[in-house]
């Protein structure tokens, strides 16, 4: 089983709809992250969380919200989806300690029509 | 500003040859660097990392070199195999304790049989 699991893997929806992407991990990591990936661009950070009570905005948080329901679960919501939010979305986790890489799920491909 | 870039968006090599993928970073305060491999339909996979107090680190068939003087990072893959075909990203940590990463745009490595 994957250490970082994202659901759904693919989603097509319409403009204005509310969308939730879910991420769960079995690595026991405290830190979780949401990124989006667009063609020709690197991964860009949307939100990150250091524990259940800690939520922080990344560089492109506008139009998104998150919820850290438990140490193992971190969900990303698009309250009213728009076409330019069409992208690949990745969840990642990392250990509390420094100098530890982030570990990624296999992503959700989201298309907004 | 903070940025991580790659010199070569596409690198084509013959099977068995050595590959070198380059990356430039701009933040002199970055203290930790990571190389990721991303195969089609999958999330970034950790390959190797290096701290800023090191110049070189070796793994299995991979070596990362860090030149802080010119803010340059490279990934060397020995005896490149078809399974090495993927997009490779470098990332720099700019957030220290927050473990926030900035990613490059990626280099596509194509291994010719």
How would you describe what is shown here?
The complex is a heterodimer of chains A (113) and B (113). Chain A is mainly beta and 113 residues long. Chain A contains no helices and eleven strands. Chain A has strands at residues 4-7, 10-13, 19-25, 31-37, 44-51, 54-57, 65-70, 73-78, 87-94, 103-104, 108-112. In chain A, strands 2, 4, 5, 6, 9, 10 and 11 form a seven-stranded mixed beta sheet that branches. Chain A has a four-stranded antiparallel beta sheet with strand order 1-3-8-7, with no helix packed on it. Chain A is globular and about 40 Å long. With 113 residues, chain B is an all-beta fold. In chain B, 0% of the residues lie in helices and 53% in strands. Chain B contains no helices and eleven strands. In chain B, strands 2, 4, 5, 9, 10 and 11 form a six-stranded mixed beta sheet that branches. Chain B has a five-stranded antiparallel beta sheet with strand order 1-3-8-7-6, with no helix packed on it. Chains A and B meet through strand 5, strand 9 and strand 10 of A and strand 4, strand 5 and strand 10 of B.
């Amino acid at each position: 089983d994957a250490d970082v699991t994202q659901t759904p893997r693919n989603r097509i929806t319409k403009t204005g709809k509310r969308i939730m992407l879910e991420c769960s991990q079995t690595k026991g990591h405290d830190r979780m992250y949401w990124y989006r990936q667009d063609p020709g661009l690197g991964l860009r950070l949307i939100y990150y969380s250091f524990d259940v009570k800690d939520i922080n905005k990344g560089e492109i948080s506008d139009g998104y919200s998150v919820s850290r329901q438990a140490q193992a679960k971190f969900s990303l919501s698009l309250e009213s989806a728009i076409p330019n939010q069409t992208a690949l979305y990745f969840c990642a986790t990392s250990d509390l300690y420094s100098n530890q890489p982030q570990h990624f799920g296999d992503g959700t491909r989201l298309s907004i029509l | 500003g903070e940025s991580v870039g790659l010199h070569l968006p596409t690198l084509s090599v013959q099977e068995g040859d050595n590959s070198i993928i380059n990356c430039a970073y701009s933040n002199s305060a970055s203290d930790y660097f990571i190389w990721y491999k991303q195969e089609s339909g999958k999330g970034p996979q950790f390959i190797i990392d290096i701290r800023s107090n090191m110049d070189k680190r070796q793994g299995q068939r991979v070596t990362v070199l860090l030149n802080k003087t010119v803010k340059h990072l490279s990934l060397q893959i020995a005896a490149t195999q078809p399974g090495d075909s993927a997009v490779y990203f470098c990332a720099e940590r700019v957030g220290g304790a927050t473990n926030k990463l900035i990613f490059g745009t990626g280099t596509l490595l194509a291994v010719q049989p």
